[in-house]
Every structure is written in structure tokens, then in C-alpha cells.
Amino acid sequence: MALSLDSKIRDIMRSPEGKKVLEKYVPGSSKDPRMKLVGALTYRTLLSYPESAEVAKLADQIDEDLKKCSR
Known about the structure:
Elements: H1 9-14, H2 16-25, H3 43-47, H4 53-56, H5 59-67
């Protein structure tokens, strides 16, 4: 099953390809310790927070890239 914006952050982080997508759009995010705190959230939920407004504009591209990843 492919990853998507509806995947949980922890599932994306467990995938080497998923981590690359995170890094592509938010450099340093895969090494940010705060990502463990949001691991149970879906990426779509995380993008709904005001702090993610700039990255949220790229949601369609992120979703497309995640869907190309394997788990």
C-alpha cells in the first residue's frame, strides 16, 4: 500500500522513501525530534496547522510524491 497525505507521520518516517519526501519539502524534518510528538497524526492533519501554511500550499505535490513510495 502506498503512502499518502492520509498516512500517519510515523508510517512515513518508517519508509526511507517517505523520509526523502519529507526532506524534499521540509529540509531537516526527518531529524527533528518534534516529529515523534506528531507521529500519530496524518500528514494532512499536520498540514492543517497554521505553522505549516507554506508547506500546505504544496499538499497536492507532496501527496503525489508520497503515493509513489512503497511502505
